[in-house]
Amino acid sequence: MFEPTSRYFALETATHTMPDGREVAYTRRRFLPRGETLPLLVEVAVTEGDRLDLIAARTIGDPEQFWRICDANDTLNPPDLLAELGRALRVPVPQA
User: Fold this and answer.
1) 64-80: pLDDT as tens digits
2) Which of 27, 39, 57, 64 could be stapled to 93 by a disulfide with Cβ–Cβ 3.0 to 4.6 Å?
3) Closest to 95 (Cα-Cα) out of 40, 52, 44, 42
4) Residue 69 · residue 91 · CB < 8 Å
C-alpha cells in the first residue's frame, strides 16, 4: 500500500467490522519516536533559504526522507524546524 521509503510502510493493516457486517481495512496509527532516541547522523544549522527536502537530499541522499528529520526533532509541523536561522537540526541515521 505504501512505498518502502514512506513513514507508514512498516505499519500493520487491520480491519474493523461495521455494524452492518462490512469489513473496512485501515492502517494502524503511527506513533512518533522520541527524537533523542534516534541514532544521530549529523547536525545541520538552518540557513536562509533552507528546505527540509534539500537538507534530507544533502544528508540522507533522498529528499522524500524529510520526515526522518521531523521525527528526530520531535515536530509534527515541518515549517517549524526552519523558522529560526542557526537552529541545529538533528538528522538521524536512516533505518529500515
Assistant:
1) 999 999 999 999 899 99
2) 39
3) 40
4) yes
